[in-house]
Amino acid sequence: MSFFGKIFGEKENNPEKKSFWRSITSESDLAEAVENSYENTIVIFKHSTSCYISKTILKNFEKEIENLDQKISFYYLDLLAHRSVSNKIAADFGIRHESPQLIVIEDGKAVNNASHQDISISLIR
């Protein structure tokens, strides 16, 4: 990766390349994720791809979860590309939209959420 790529974040750091992320790109993807929350905990990371702070928080969170051995499904939402899905999440779960934002869902209900520097693996039960 080039010097400027390290500073400004080249596509090489795309979270969708990480094997644990599942993309949410539509309301049907969201519905499927919520349905999966009845089987095991799901986590949705809402990320602004144009925000340096969001990129930094995402990288730090990815480091925390790489070796997690709990049965958790991790979902990634590019909220700039899919803002309507982000708005639906806010409306359905009664959580004010923020970015970056982490939402933990169990049995179809949001049980925890955080934004910015408060995002941590400790939010997941």
Automatic annotation (TrEMBL):
It comes from the Bacteria. SUPFAM superfamilies: Thioredoxin-like (SSF52833). This is Bacillithiol system protein YtxJ. InterPro entries: BrxC, Thioredoxin-like_sf.
